[in-house]
């Protein structure tokens, strides 16, 4: 008996919510149009060129990396800590 009453109550809730729900439905808006993607050739053209200071720093880092290889062979040092310490002194001087 209790099962029938519970089933009837649940059915009544579904029926009332189904008849009320359309009145509270939200309107959906179409998503805003996305701008068209630029071709790769335009993206490359817009890429910012490196400044003279950036180019000099990059070259300095390349030179220090080459010096590290020689230093590592000579001293046998290994690891990130040793490389960072070497790079710090190399880039500073």
UniProtKB/TrEMBL annotation:
Record's compositionally biased regions (Basic and acidic residues): 40-51, 60-76
Signal peptide location: 1-21
Residue ranges with Low complexity bias: 30-39
This protein's UniProt keywords: Signal
Coiled-coil features, chain-numbered ranges: none
Location of the region described as Disordered in the Swiss-Prot/TrEMBL record: 27-76
Superkingdom of source: Bacteria
Listed name of the protein: Phosphate starvation-inducible protein PsiF
Organism from which the protein derives: Variibacter gotjawalensis
């Amino acid at each position: 008996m209790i099962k029938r009453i519970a089933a009837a109550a649940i059915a009544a809730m579904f029926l009332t919510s189904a008849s009320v729900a359309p009145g509270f439905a939200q309107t959906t808006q179409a998503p805003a149009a996305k701008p068209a993607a630029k071709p790769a050739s335009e993206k490359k053209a817009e890429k910012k060129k490196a400044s003279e200071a950036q180019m000099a720093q990059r070259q300095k880092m390349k030179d220090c990396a080459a010096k590290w290889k020689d230093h590592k062979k000579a001293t046998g040092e290994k690891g990130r800590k040793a490389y960072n310490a070497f790079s710090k002194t190399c880039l500073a001087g």
